[in-house]
Amino acid sequence: MQFTSIYPQRAAKGAPPQPAPEILYSCATGDPGSPLVFPLNAVRWLTPPRQIAALVTHSSHDRFSAELFHFGKETRPMEAELSLLKPGSYTFMVRQKDGGKVLATRALPVVGTRTRVVFSLPPRVPCEVMITRR
Description:
The chain has helices at about 1-15, 20-30, and strands at about 45, 50-60, 65-70, 75-80, 90-95, 100-110, 115-120, 125-134. It is an alpha+beta fold. It has a domain at about 45-134: Sandwich (Immunoglobulin-like). Strand 2 (about 50-60) and strand 3 form a beta hairpin. The N and C termini lie far apart (about 55 Å).
């Protein structure tokens, strides 16, 4: 019943704006530009694109962070390929976004242009992945 009362009000204001695929691409990959020009993906999520939300919050040559949420009911194994980090020694950490409880932390050596990291996400808990240079 609420739809029928809201629809006439919304119709008077015009159609909602069209979604921008560039924004979705940038949020998921950390690339500030267009995928059609010269893609600079900071990360490639090596996981099926179901029941997952990812937002890259920072990507540079010495730091990476992203917010992740798994909608499923069981722990989800994850793998990511990082491509912008310079070679060196980094710290990898997964923590709960609310409260900051650390779920996993370890050293992460970056040797080449593509570094893979494997971790897991708890079900239905907003998490943050952080990679910082030591």
